[in-house]
Amino acid sequence: MLDTSLPAAEVEKVDFSADVRPILARRCYACHGTTIQEAGLALHNYESATQETESGIVAIVPGNVDESELVFRIQETDPDLRMPPAEHEPLTAKEIQTIKTWIAQGGEYNQHWAFQPIPVIEPPAIAEVSNPIDRFIDARLNKASIETAPPADRDTLIRRLYYDLIGLPPSPEEVTAFVNNPDPDAYEKLVNELLASPHYGERWARHWLDVVRYAETNSFERDGTKPNAWKYRDYVIRSFNEDKPYDQFLIEQLAGDELDEVTRETLIASGFYRLGIWDDEPADPLLARYDELDSIITTISQGMLGLTVNCARCHDHKIDPMPQTDYYRMLAFLDELTPYGRRGDEKTFSQSDVSDPELNAKYEAIENQLRDLRQRIYDLEQTGVVKMSAEDQRATETGRRQKLLERKLKNYLDPEPWAQYEGMKEEERQLEEQMRQLPDREMVMSVAKVELNRSPTTVMLRGNPHVPGDVVEPGFPELFGDADPEFAEAGPQQERSGKRKAFAEWVASEENRLTARVMVNRIWQHHFGRGIVRTPNNFGLLGAPPTHPDLLNWLAREFMDQDWSMKSMHRLILMSKAYQRSSQTVEDSLEKDPNNDFFWRFDLRRLSAEEVRDSVLAVTGVLNEKLYGPSIYPDLSKEVLSTQSNPGAGWGKSSEEERNRRSVYIFIKRSLIPPELSSFDFPDTDVTCEARFMTIQPSQALAMINGEFLNEQARQFAERLNEEAGDDLESKVRLGLELVTTRKPTETDVNEGLQLIETLQNKHGLSAEDSLKYFCLYALNLNEFVFID
Questions:
Q1: Smallest Cα–Cα separation from 264: which of 360, 354, 361?
Q2: Please, is 383 exposed, middle or buried when counting C-beta atoms within 10 Å of its C-beta (0-12, 13-18, 19+)?
Q3: Are 381 and 409 in contact (CB under 8 A)?
């Protein structure tokens, strides 16, 4: 227990933001926070926590533990007096000690770490440690007396790098070349080579697609297709491959239709706003509109800013310092956005024509000719229609008009007008044929149309759009203290207010306290298996505090100093010793830091759903490495297709060559995720995904052993071994194991494979062909295949 008679300076400083506020937020704010202040006590700010309550007591007396009622209540054993109340778990001894130490040191309240400006940090000075990341990591390890795992060997490193950067396994030849390369810069050169690979964009785009809840359909019962959504996916892949600055990447998505220079690419980027779910026949259309906007606000605030602004839709945020007005001030930036579509029209709002102007001019010329010609045809037809019977005249006003005219019009026109009519119909056919001969117009999913001059944005009481409250203007969350925005005139696009452009520039500003922190944390997360902040979508008070706050701040500054280059950040992280450690256990370190918070070793991880499928295709030798283009449709069984309300609706058929493309190109239908993806924790596409689950469950084993996809791939794997290893069975087994594990198999490995084949033939009566196929299936089910060391 802390001896409060000691000077506070002799005890390690307790930080309110990092150490105390998370305890209060979890254990106290529900009853003594921003919304509810039982007994008149609120603990979320200094003034209310240190003043007298209704009963005359003071919860926190800065510098005086004994006089602080809060300490008495959290230590009390009487259930009628203890806080939290008896129905809740009491604070732990460590939590109590943290609060007592903090009060003894003065009970200072400071702003939450993530809401403070990003400070300028200098890496700790550690002799013979050059990489700044290692200097931060090693300083914490040294202070905690934690021993690190040894460096990973080259076989492990190349496999780790290949999967982290391009999501595919290295070939045996690539492994051998790297392992035997005497060049001291071989590792750095490999990093640069993989960052330059077009497959890098395919791998890292998928991480972003998780964040923005990418899918190509609308969800709900019909789950209709979003035309051209795949072009947004290709935009993201290209942006990563080109190392587009992250700030530009964000601005294009948030305001691609409002920029000074609107291009095909920026219009596609604005398709970000069209990715969410959309109900084409909602019971409450007004509520559905605001639900759609709420999905956008949630994705922007959590995905780009690490803030749960969406929690303030119905009331002031329960934990973070965000009043309800913050939500609606953000909504006011977006209120001109049209819905994705209207029943029967899903193009006007969401599809833009980006065809070549010369091509459009040709289309327009023919369309104008057709419009004029069809009017003349109609006028001539009507001269005959007026002579028809009343019944036939009525029929010409229905869908039967064309067939009736084909049968009877000639009877009601004189020879000269009839000849004129036939000539015009022939001219119409020729013009239509000219139209068919033109290349197709190119349409992209985008913010094609907005609605200006809508009613002012208001706060909605309890989040109900049918109960409007006070009018609000566009503005940034109060916690940032930023001035109200000024709206410059939008770019060349007509009817744009420029509000989203102003918002995008604020989000992507170097002055924004969260944007750079959030993205470098995501990059770190996908290299180390978890972020420096373990809750990448929530940097608020209920989010996990950073394990290395100084490192996070330094990385954020470095990210911006390097012009928001994602590849530079990869390179910096991958060149660190921390990343290059093995996953070996050091018993004493494991005991001191079982969660590996200090990064003393590399965490073993399972391959993602896409990595499993793509690796199977690569190993079996059938992977189609074609880049970009329309999505593909894997074959699905009748049982899977029957899970839809309309079985098989909206699911196309691709050629075998197309089906063998990488998983990032699979058509993502919200109601019909292919089993080889869903079994391996493919994310829910309705909401932003901060981190995928990484489970180990029976359905994965069943899919890998019994699934049609894996069994077909095992057959193709066997064909590859027959072709490349010749007739020698041992050679086939060696090659198969090497392809699967990306290392030279041991003699034990080879003998187990040979024994399996012999058992299948002699005990179970399988043919040599089938036995080799089942050996291949066995190899694809090895732990070494689906785990990264």
A1: 354
A2: middle
A3: yes
Distance separating alpha carbons of residues 603 and 579, to the nearest angstrom:
10
The strand pairing partners of 444, in sequence order, are 352
CB-count burial class (<10 Å; 0-12, 13-18, 19+) for 171: middle
Residue 643 exposure: Cα atoms within 13 Å on the Cβ side? 13
Using 50, 70 and 90 to split pLDDT, how confident is the model at 37? confident
Q: CA 705: distance to chain centroid?
A: 30
Q: Are 736 and 722 in contact (CB under 8 A)?
A: no
C-alpha 265/C-alpha 239 separation (Å) is 10
Omega into 84 within 30° of 0, i.e. cis? yes
Q: How many other C-beta atoms are found inside a 10 Å radius of the C-beta of residue 66?
A: 11
The conformation of residue 459, written as its DSSP 8-state character, comes to E
299: enclosing H helix or E strand: helix 285-305
In 3D, which of 764, 787, 643, 638 has the Cα closest to residue 704? 787
Helix, strand or coil, per DSSP, at residue 52: strand
Residue 67 has φ and ψ, to the nearest 5°, of -90, -5
Separation between Cα atoms, residue 206 and residue 674, nearest integer Å: 16
pLDDT tens digits along 616-634: 999 999 999 999 999 999 9
Give me the sign of the Cα torsion angle 88, 94, 97, 98.
negative
| CA atoms 59, 64, 65, 67: torsion sign | negative
The C-alpha atoms of residue 227 and residue 205 are separated, in whole angstroms, by 20
Q: Which token pair is 143?
A: 């202070």
User: Cα–Cα distance between 38 and 32 in angstroms, integer?
Assistant: 6
Pairing between β-strand 351-353 and β-strand 458-460 as defined by DSSP bridges: unpaired
DSSP 323-369: -HHHHHHHHHHHTTBPPS-BTTBSSTTTEEE---HHHHHHHHHHHHH
Alpha carbon of residue 742 to chain centroid = 29
What CA–CA distance (Å, rounded) separates 505 from 491?
14
**Distance in angstroms (rounded) separating the CA atoms of residues 255 and 487:** 13
Q: State the amino acid at position 47 in one-letter form.
A: E
SS3 631: coil
| DSSP conformation letters of 760-785 | HHHTT---HHHHHHHHHHHHHT-HHH
* 73-104 pLDDT, tens digit each: 999 888 878 888 878 889 999 999 999 999 99
Residues belonging to the chain: 789
| CA-to-CA separations, 236 to 267, 625, 673, in angstroms, rounded | 13, 17, 21
List the Cα angle 476/509/134 in 5-degree steps.
120
Q: What is the DSSP letter of 458?
A: E
Residue 2's pLDDT is: 41
Is residue 675 within 8 Å of residue 640, measured between CB atoms?
Answer: yes
- Condensed to tens digits (0 to 9), the pLDDT of residues 645-665 reads 888 888 999 999 999 999 999
Q: Which two tokens stand for residue 278?
A: 């959309």
pLDDT at residue 306 above 60? yes
Residue 677 near residue 663, CB atoms below 8 Å: yes
DSSP label of 217: B
Task: Report which listed range, 11-20, 248-257, 480-489, is most confident.
Answer: 248-257
3-state SS, residue 722: helix
- Structural tokens at position 340: 């994705």
Rounded to an integer, what distance in angstroms lies between the CA atom of residue 204 and that of residue 241?
A: 9
Q: Quote the pLDDT of residue 109.
A: 86
Q: Per the structure block, which two tokens stand in for 332?
A: 């006011």
Residue 200 is encoded by which pair of tokens? 């890098």
Tokens of 532: 């420096």
Residues 6+ apart with CB under 8 A from 590: none
Q: Tell me the whole-structure pTM to 2 decimals.
A: 0.89
Residue 31 has pLDDT above 90, yes or no: no
Contacts of 584 (CB under 8 A, 6+ apart): 149, 150, 601
The two structure tokens encoding residue 102: 């903090």
